[in-house]
Amino acid sequence: MTQPPDSVKAQIPALLPIRAQLRHTLRRQRHDIPLPVKQDWDRLIAHHLLQEIRQFAPKQIGIYWPIKQEPELQDCFQQLHIAGYQLALPIVVSKVEALKFVAWVPGDAMEQDEYGIPIPQRREQAIQPDLIIIPCVGFNSACYRLGYGGGFYDRTLAKFPSVRSIGVAYQLLETNFIAEEFDLPLNAIITEQGITARRI
């Protein structure tokens, strides 16, 4: 197959739908954060997240395994485990269903799913979280999250409306976009600057 010339490739993001173009831009911004800066921001996000979790007082927490330069919060999750919280990682059941959460503790053996995301090798113990921590590609001031476009977290929050949700992201990823029909707002967004947005 003949590949488009470089001049055409450079224009491809501008030809994408608005949301896809926005995701491309935000992911590039996140990718370009210098590692020492990212590590400092991750520590700040973890600090603010631990403070917020104490206010939510959950017993079971859905967390995530970072990919694509998402905030790396493993030290925070380790502290939550030591404090006695039951942690769980998300599993993709199908492309049209809500996520399933399975028990996880630091040190569990992991493997990659079909999307290349690490998941626990043992997935027998399903967990229903009281609180879900969700990474964001972008977010707005109304607590709406921009993800990768699969709709997995929106379907999950729609299926379990009583579950609390906290998005985590870097402050530079705050942007303006209009929520679509199936978008659901999170309860709060945490960045390295603290609680950036909150919904009662």
UniProtKB/TrEMBL annotation:
Cofactor: Mg(2+)
Enzyme class (EC, first level): ligase
UniProtKB keywords: ATP-binding, Ligase, Magnesium, Metal-binding, Nucleotide-binding
EC number: 6.3.3.2
GO BP term, pick one: tetrahydrofolate interconversion
Residues that coordinate or bind ATP: 145-153
Matching InterPro entries: FTHF_cligase, FTHF_cligase-like_sf, NagB/RpiA_transferase-like
Superkingdom, taxonomy of origin: Bacteria
Family membership: Belongs to the 5-formyltetrahydrofolate cyclo-ligase family.
PANTHER family per the UniProt record, alphabetical: 5-FORMYLTETRAHYDROFOLATE CYCLO-LIGASE, ATPASE INHIBITOR/5-FORMYLTETRAHYDROFOLATE CYCLO-LIGASE
Name the UniProt record assigns to this protein: 5-formyltetrahydrofolate cyclo-ligase
Organism: Undibacterium fentianense
